[in-house]
Hints:
Na+/H+ antiporter like fold
Amino acid sequence: MLVRRTMRLRIRWRRVLHIVGNRNVAFGTAFALGLILGPAVARPLAPLTLPALGVLIALTAADVPARIFREWRQVLRSTGLALLFTYVVNTVVVVALAGLLVPEPELYAGYALVAAAPPAVGGLGFCAVLRGDVPLSLIGTIGAHVAALAITPVLTLLLVGSALIQPQQLFVLLVELIVIPLVASRALRYPRILPLVRRWRGPVINWAYAIVIFVAVGVNRDTFFRQPLLVARVGVVALASTFGLGALTDWTLRRLRVARGPRVSLILFATLKNAGFAASAALALIGAEASLPGALTTVAISLYLFYLGFEAERRR
């Protein structure tokens, strides 16, 4: 009897952990709590958003062995493709839509940070689920993050000037977000630590993103309730740059007869930006309203990944 009860408790506990660690549960809970609790609770937690994203990147990069970067031709090819679809395809669409639909200076600056952000590391997990080209996604994501140390400040300066954002401040944030976590990820590869990292990485990553969503939504709660049309305009850009751009990229690559594996990876590069970084940087450097584009883009990306996962299961 005792053994059976213990097994039942373990099964129930695993089910609870599965539900709590689910991406959509984490993001939905964070969004709802942000609207309920508002700026009084969210604003004091704003300094936690960037460290949360740093933890996310460190945990993701822990699975990346250094030897994967020894083949320099593959590194250049993968990084080049990641930069093309992240900083040309996505950036052009986001900037064009934001300039058309959200010309307000702070909101446009928030979308400029989304456009200048590196690709989302969350795409790596979905690349395997969707049967994409995992080496392409892996090398391209890390390469694009390293390149973002130079690209993101320069691109942001070109898009919004230095009146709202100082490039040197943005560079410091990028060092905290990229360099320190990548160095820390090497320590996480220690044989006794890596199994624990792999076991708990998924839920931790989801709730790290959830912290960013909660803070960005919470500090903008009054905007959600008082200016729903403005929120709708911001949301249209977020949805168009994920669902719309994903469909367009897929159609174009099919016409070019790109194989399924690379096509999936390139679609993810074109649609998944590290919008959490954009929201955190906007909070730190500009103001609460500027974090709204990053928050809504993070939610749109979550919905898009849910849709891609559902489509993959349906096809199987």
